[in-house]
Amino acid sequence: MILCLDAGNSSLKLVTYADGSVLERQQWHYSADSSALQNWLQTIVAKVQVILGSCVANADTQAFIEAIVNEPIHWATSTSECSGVVNAYAQPENLGVDRWLTLLASHCALQQPTLTIDHGTALTFDWLTAAGQHLGGWITPGERLMRNSLNTATSRVRTGLENNAENATLAPAVNTQAGVSLGIYAALTGAVRQAINTSEQCFGTRRFAIVETGPTSLCQPLSYDADYYYKKDLVTLGLLLWGQSQDLLDLTDIEISRLFNWKE
């Protein structure tokens, strides 16, 4: 069994793999009590051969995760090249490792011009050619950051906790909370729409793929000609490829086919 850790800015996602399949998913928000997570880890740790990790959280959070897991964790880093993907950054370590791993997974699965979209604390976009050349990307605040900025930087705009605009029309709102939710949703989907338009210029074709990950889909309400894939486990799938490149595990061709044959 392989345990993969995706330590984001607000939560830790854990996925176990065996024989080319997902066995179990867990998620722990850093603000929550960790007892249930520790109990779960105790039930599986004897079966785990290797633990792979991706971390974009701060050093204190990473150290706390290491203390909870209490087993060696192999933390991935962004490099100039890995698994057929070439990093566009002159200083490759500055590319967020979650973005890097998403690119590795997308290229392994598709090997076609691809726009990757990750909707988390930040909303990120990256462009990747069929040959595996990373062209660069964008970073913009995600829903939570937009909502928090309005709560903290304004005196009378209180936004509530949830964005319920996904299934709504973008008609003008008649109360503040709805106005914030619709405004944030318009900003996020507007960024996605612009990224899709930019993809045609980057790739020189309208035939490309969109790979999206995040709690909800920002692409579904939009019209586009691209092939579309929504994947929950992009970062942890990329971790498997990174681990393979570091000789930390040995995925068989059958396992790789099960994990990355997205087109069927």
Automatic annotation (TrEMBL):
Annotated binding of ATP, by residue: D6, A7, G8, N9, S10, S11, L12, K13, T121
**Localization (cell):** Cytoplasm
A GO biological process held by the record: coenzyme A biosynthetic process
Alphabetically, the GO molecular function entries are: ATP binding; metal ion binding; pantothenate kinase activity
Bound cofactor: record note:
A monovalent cation. Ammonium or potassium.
The residues annotated as the active site are: D98 (proton acceptor)
**Annotated binding of substrate, by residue:** Y89, G96, V97, D98, R99, T176
* Keywords of this entry: ATP-binding, Coenzyme A biosynthesis, Cytoplasm, Kinase, Metal-binding, Nucleotide-binding, Potassium, Transferase
The domain of life is: Bacteria
Chief subcellular site?
cytoplasm
Q: Where are the transmembrane segments?
A: none
This enzyme's EC code(s): 2.7.1.33
Q: Please give the family membership noted in the entry.
A: Belongs to the type III pantothenate kinase family.
User: What is its biological role?
Assistant: Catalyzes the phosphorylation of pantothenate (Pan), the first step in CoA biosynthesis.
Quaternary state and partners of this protein? Homodimer.
Name used for this protein in its record: Type III pantothenate kinase
Highest classification ranks of the organism: Bacteria, Pseudomonadati, Pseudomonadota, Gammaproteobacteria, Alteromonadales
